[in-house]
Every structure is written in C-alpha cells, then in structure tokens.
Specification:
- The chain is an alpha/beta fold.
- The protein is built from 10 helices and 8 strands.
- Helix 6 links the parallel strand 5 and strand 6.
- The longest helix is centred in the last third of the chain and has 20 residues.
- The chain is globular, with a radius of gyration of 17 Å.
Length: 290
C-alpha cells in the first residue's frame, strides 16, 4: 500500500482537518467464490492515482484544490470475523460523517456496501442508493451467508430504496424477488437501446434527494474494464457512466460513495487508472460544479 495520499497530493491539500473528502481503503475479500485478488484493488487505485493528471479537462479546474482529499490507512480486514469487520466499517463511516467528511471507500469486494449505507441512513433522511453494477446482488443469502457479496444489495434495500444501473446478470431467485423489493433495475440491454439523456432522466426521477453512490467496476463493459472478478459482456462505457454521474451530482446531493471490484492484472495499468480517474471525476462533479 503506497504511503502517499490519493493523487500524490501535497500536504496543503491532503490534511484531514481541512479536507472535505476522505479516501477510505477497505481491502476486504472474504466471500468471493470466483477469481480472487480484489483485496489488492485499493492499493492499485492509489498507486494509479499518482499517474493521472490532476487538471480536469471537462470541469476546466484542478478539483483537488477546491476539495482537499485525505487518505486514511487501510482498514485491517484480516483479523476477526466478517461480522466484526462489518461493524468496524459501520463505526468508521459514522466517525467520518460526524467529522463532516465525504467518505470514499475503496474495496475490496461488494460486501463493504451495506454497513456504509447503514451509517449513511443514520445521518441522512430521504436516502436512496445508486448502484452501478453488472449484478443485482439481491440474494437473501449465498452459501448460507447473508453477508456475502452476492447479498449486498438485498441488505441495502432493507435500509433504503435502490436504483440499480447496468445490470445484466441475475439469478432466478433474484429475478423473482425484484418486484417485491425496494429497487428499480435499469437493465443494460435496455440502456443500450435508449438515448443516454432519456434513461438518465428516468434514473434521476427514481432517486431521492440524498444519494449514496456505490460502483462495482464490473458495471463497465469488460472491453473498457477487464480487471474485475466477475466480468460480464454488454456493460456501460466511460461516457455513459460519467454522464450519469455528472447529472446525479447536478440534481441530487451525493452524500458518500464506494468503488469496489477491481482485480488488478499484471500489465493492465489502464483498468487501475480508470478506477482512479473515476473516483477523481466523481469528486469533481460533486464538489466543483457551478
């Protein structure tokens, strides 16, 4: 894990006390059953962030100077039970919110999301979750574990409503449950046939005033983001995702976020950099628009 802050920022723009955003590395990998290695994701994102340009050509500013971005040490996810780690994540997120910080958790696997959302729901009323993902993650339990990554969004919708975008992989159990759950699914197959502005407007209409953003990088098409544990064909591209995120940041209050699912691959620097740039783009949209 690199010791430097996200983006290699100078101390002036990365002190905890003066930073509005806090990067929170969570290298959790306990419940994955397919390819393993997402515990290396947070370190790869931080390392790649040192190689990205800090000037945003779209916003025409250097967002970090307006925001301040602090990076915490990675949370220890190896000791204790999964339930203990989940409790620690909840407590840490509550602490950041008490300090009026904007938390950005870097996973790790998708199971980091429910405790973070639960912490958010304690602070923010009228909360909904926007999920970008290939998978619904709506099983009630998986291999006997209700805290599995495959159940993450089932636990989330027990806390608040969700809007799930880019979905293209679902089990029969989940498909049968969806009509009875507090979620609206935007299938990738439908997004592909609709004008971008049209489906984005519909997503905005389904979100509440306060939005927690959770991104599994397999929401992108694997031609764009191949370095994930569970790639699925037919996903979103960079400009579909960034157009959605800019619109949500313009019309709603995004109160926190996580990015999960990066499985770093030797020789594939592009995927790591995409993840780092995505985090930086999101912060620019949230803090530096108009």
């Amino acid at each position: 894990m690199p010791s430097e802050n996200f983006g290699g920022l100078p101390e002036e723009y990365s002190r905890y006390e003066t930073s509005r955003a806090v990067i929170f590395p969570v290298p959790l990998e306990r419940t994955l059953t397919a390819s393993r290695g997402t515990h290396n994701g947070p370190a790869a994102i931080l390392a790649a962030s040192h190689h990205m340009e800090l000037y945003d050509e779209e916003l025409q500013i250097e967002p970090y100077k307006e925001i301040g971005i602090h990076t915490l040490p990675p949370i220890d996810t190896n000791d204790g039970s999964l339930d203990e780690v989940i409790t620690e994540l909840f407590t840490a997120e509550c602490g950041l919110l008490d300090d009026e910080k904007f938390p950005v958790a870097l996973g790790g696997e998708r199971s980091i999301t429910p405790p973070l959302v639960t912490a958010m729901a304690k602070k923010f009323k009228n909360l909904s979750v926007l999920q970008l993902d290939a998978h619904t993650n709506l099983r009630n339990e998986y291999q006997g574990n209700p805290s599995s990554h495959a159940c993450a969004m089932r636990r989330v919708v027990e806390v608040c409503p969700a809007v799930q975008v880019g979905i293209r992989s679902v089990s029969l159990e989940e498909a049968q449950a969806i009509p009875h759950l507090r979620t609206k699914v935007y299938w990738a197959k439908d997004i592909a046939r609709m004008p971008t502005k049209s489906w984005i407007a519909k997503v905005l209409g389904d979100l509440s005033a306060n939005v927690y953003l959770t991104i599994d990088l397999d929401g992108f098409d694997p031609s764009v983001m191949p370095a994930t544990g569970s790639p699925e064909p037919g996903g979103l591209d960079w400009y579909q995702v960034t157009s959605l995120l800019r619109a949500v940041a313009s019309h709603k209050k995004i109160v926190g976020m996580d990015v999960a699912g990066l499985l770093p691959q030797p020789g594939d620097q592009a995927s790591d950099l995409l993840a780092a740039r995505l985090v930086y783009k999101c912060l620019g949209y949230i803090f530096c628009q108009g």
